[in-house]
């Protein structure tokens, strides 16, 4: 049923505020300049206030609008997209955040189709390079070419991990029988106790960095398994063909967020960081530097460590507050490098390099029909991202090019263009790809990830049961939170 409440666009007035005691008085006393600073949308009462205009927030707001509810989206940044963001390299729009989509990421694929945004297959012809534990090889396909004995261990390990993951019922991995044991381990400590091959351990460390942007020693083994479950197995996470890196969007994935935002523009306010959320039995009130909104419910889509920066009255329950103190963002720096031509293809290489010798990586080919010449895309992930984030940009660039040159030759040292995004230093994201709990956190605090606190509901990729950490998971979480809220209005 559409809401009968009408959004009351206009300056804050006593009629629009409700009994929040001292705060109500404070609102009434807001200086005129504060209200004047906000242009569109103006402070008002709405059904639902959405905090954050990443994919989760935009999806939640879109679903609520389509259900006839009044909404406002309050975004701290001066742009939409959150952990997706575009940049321009050699005249082409590229993704500096989320980029790839896989065949089982059906929510993102459906949204892309709805907005007419086409994707292309990730280039995977030619040989990949693996260089792990001193063993370097060229190989084709998805299975990393370890020496035979190690390959056998790796195959058995993948089956074992997928078997464990399959025992988990998402979105509550902490309910699995072995939850306490698995959550007491990091991926690293579990491997040290259970995997004898140093090559396999080293490969797994590189894969954990590549998938989580964190170190194996910082990621709960239970969280790792829940990720596998949410994605459909380790192979789905690490593969190009058929996996999470199957396709990407020339002209950017980010443009989908931009298109949704264009549809919602009259309900969207940028540069509006939410600093305070108050609630009582009558509703919620949300304070930003651009004004104050009141509503029936609020959906917070900021990832846990960012949600922790908001003040709440009354304060968050201990479990929710504890969770947000214990779930830091991963560390990542993303780099796109343009070349006059994709010279690695001439060497019979796909562009993919997995190595424990270099700090930059993995990297892959990023050529589209729009690319003039060649392009690679790669990452500093986890520890290397932390180590390189605060160094001068020129030093980082020299390191990136030298690491690529080690495998692709000196042509790598002469890029035509170069762009990086140091996510670990962007104040409104503070890292990526995802927030990752260490050991002991999920079992003690996990319940608070998506459990509403009164009128405050939580979305964001971290709260998804499918494709946690990915744009697809963010979209699913936005839809779930919108449905949760719509039922209560
Ligand atoms: C480098 C990188 C590469 C990635 N690669 C991929 C990939 O290839 N494929 C894939 O699917 N995923 C990828 N991801 C992950 C993907 O981008 C995220 O999972 C997804 O974008 C998360 O969306 P979200 O809406 O849950 O959160 P976010 O995008 O983080 O949105 C939250 C929003 O809340 C805002 N906010 C925070 N605090 C406040 C506040 N107090 N007031 C108002 N607003 C606030 C933020 O500014 C942000 O816009 C990648 C991420 C990164 C960083």
Fold and architecture overview:
It is a single chain. Helices cover 34% and strands 20% of the residues. The chain is α/β, with parallel strands linked by helices and 489 residues long. The protein has three domains: 22-78 and 270-327 and 437-486, FAD/NAD(P)-binding domain (3-Layer(bba) Sandwich), CATH 3.50.50.60; 86-124 and 246-251 and 330-425, Alpha-Beta Complex (Polyamine Oxidase, Chain A, domain 2), CATH 3.90.660.10; 147-238, Guanine Nucleotide Dissociation Inhibitor, domain 1. It starts with 21 loop residues before the first helix and ends with a helix. Bound molecules: flavin-adenine dinucleotide. Flavin-adenine dinucleotide is lined by residues 51-57, 74-77, 82-84, 97-100, 273-274, 301-303, 306, 310, 332, 334, 423, 428-429, 432-434, 460-461, 469-472, 474.
């Amino acid at each position: 049923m559409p809401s009968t409440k009408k959004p009351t666009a206009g300056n804050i007035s006593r009629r629009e505020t409700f009994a929040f005691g001292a705060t109500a008085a404070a609102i009434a006393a807001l200086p005129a300049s504060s209200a004047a600073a906000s242009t569109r949308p103006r402070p008002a009462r709405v059904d639902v206030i959405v905090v954050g205009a990443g994919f989760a927030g935009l999806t939640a707001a879109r679903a609520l609008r389509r259900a006839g509810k009044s909404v406002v989206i309050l975004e701290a940044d001066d742009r939409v997209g959150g952990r997706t963001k575009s940049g321009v390299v050699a005249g082409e729009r590229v993704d500096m955040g989320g980029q790839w989509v896989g065949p089982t990421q059906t929510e993102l694929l459906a949204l892309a189709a709805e907005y007419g945004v086409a994707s292309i297959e990730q280039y995977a012809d030619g040989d990949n390079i693996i260089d792990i534990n001193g063993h370097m090889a060229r190989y084709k396909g998805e299975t990393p070419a370890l020496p035979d004995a190690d390959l056998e261990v790796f195959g058995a390990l993948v089956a074992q991990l997928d078997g464990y993951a399959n025992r988990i019922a998402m979105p509550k991995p902490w309910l699995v029988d072995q939850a306490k044991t698995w959550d007491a381990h990091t991926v690293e400590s579990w491997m040290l106790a259970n995997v004898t091959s140093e090559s396999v351990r080293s490969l797994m460390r590189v894969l954990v960095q590549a998938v989580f942007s964190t170190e194996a020693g910082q990621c709960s083994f239970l969280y790792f398994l829940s990720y596998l479950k949410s994605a459909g197995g380790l192979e789905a996470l690490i593969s190009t063909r058929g996996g999470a890196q199957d396709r990407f969007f020339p002209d950017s994935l980010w443009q989908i967020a931009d298109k949704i935002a264009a549809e919602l523009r009259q309900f969207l306010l940028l540069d509006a960081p939410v600093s305070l959320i108050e609630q009582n039995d009558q509703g919620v009130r949300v304070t930003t530097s651009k004004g104050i909104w009141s509503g029936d419910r609020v959906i917070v889509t900021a990832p846990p460590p960012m949600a922790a920066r908001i003040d709440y009255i009354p304060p968050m329950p201990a479990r929710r507050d504890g969770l947000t103190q214990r779930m830091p963002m991963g560390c990542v720096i993303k780099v796109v490098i343009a070349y006059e031509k994709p010279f690695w293809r001439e060497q019979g290489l796909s562009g993919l390099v997995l190595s424990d010798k270099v700090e930059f990586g993995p990297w892959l080919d990023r050529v589209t029909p729009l690319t003039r010449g060649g392009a690679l895309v790669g990452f500093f992930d986890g520890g290397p991202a932390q180590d390189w984030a605060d160094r001068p940009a020129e030093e980082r660039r020299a390191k990136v090019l030298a690491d690529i040159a080690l495998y692709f030759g000196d042509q790598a040292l002469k890029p035509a263009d170069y762009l990086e995004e140091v996510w670990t230093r962007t104040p409104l994201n503070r890292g990526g790809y995802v927030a990752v709990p260490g050991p002991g956190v999920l079992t003690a605090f996990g319940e608070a990830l998506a459990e509403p606190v009164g009128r405050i509901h939580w979305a964001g990729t971290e709260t998804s049961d499918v494709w946690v950490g990915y744009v697809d998971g963010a979209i699913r979480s936005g839809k779930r939170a919108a449905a949760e809220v719509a039922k209560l209005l």
